[in-house]
Amino acid sequence: MHPAVSVIFFTVMSGAGFGLIALIGLGMPLPGGLAAAFLIPALAGGLAIAGLLSSTFHLGHPERAWRALSQWRSSWLSREGVLAIVTLVLFGLYTLVWMVAGERSLLLGLPVAACAVLTVYTTAMIYAQLKTVPHWHTGLTPACYLLFSLACGYVLAAGLGGLSGGRPGAAGFAFLAILIAWAFKLAWWLRAGRSSLADTGSTMETATGLGSIGSVRLFERPHTGENYLTREMVHVIGRKHAAKLRAIALVVGAGLPIVISLAVWIFAASTVWLILAFLALIAGLFVERWLFFAEAEHAVSLYYGGRSA
Fold it and tell me: How far apart (Å, rounded) are the C-alpha atoms in residues 305 and 222?
């Protein structure tokens, strides 16, 4: 499928933002003081809001995006929007209490963390629910989204904690968080390599409705020019390029953050260095998320000559 830049930016940045919000709500150690009580939540909320706003650029009529909120009973996209608003409102109240009282309320932080995690889950389910895209239709999809979100949030929170002398042991947990998240992603890639449209019962015969007369093959494309479906649903990336991009994602998004977190942990260095690990992780996730969309095959591609196995 066509990897829209706005959606890639949305899933990566909002995931990192809501991950940081969840960690803040759970009471992860952070610098104290009024400035920190304002700036750190502003960073977390800013990442989440920037991602959410960017997602509207992929809509034909962004001004009508608010109407999607009414379909929360049946639409994961609508549930995501509702939960994002609830999370940000609760987080704003949490931040206000933090700034006024000078301390963080765990009683209020727990629902903030729960809502943040649920928001990321609903984002993942927008894709995981689609039976027409075998690559996405797996429990590993929400698992990867959640783990990457929490890993980004933890690494960034640990890095910010270093501004007030954070404990090097936090780098050890950052290492584990990054390692676990990418381990699940490797499992996702392995499963994707074995899945096909035929696994969902989609073939050239079902796509054209001509299966009753025998085997079907494409003689000529149904359109001489491009249309919405061919632009958005029939994007093709060569396997050679996909392999290179996976390697880049692993080196930048996994290798560099792991090396940095291990170095901080082993040499008991300042956890401020984990901010660099966070930036590398985000860069790698942009590549990973581009592949998430580019390698996905929608059942409609069969009508245009796509492969079923």
Answer: 9
Query: Which range of residues forms the domain containing residue 66?
Result: 5-304
Task: List per-block mean pLDDT (blocks of 10 residues) for the chain, which spans 309 residues.
Answer: 85 98 96 95 97 78 66 87 96 97 95 98 95 90 98 97 86 97 97 75 63 67 61 61 93 98 95 97 97 80 56
Residue 250 lies in a domain: yes
CATH number at residue 47: 1.20.1630
Q: Does any domain span residue 309?
A: no
In total, how many domains does the chain have?
1
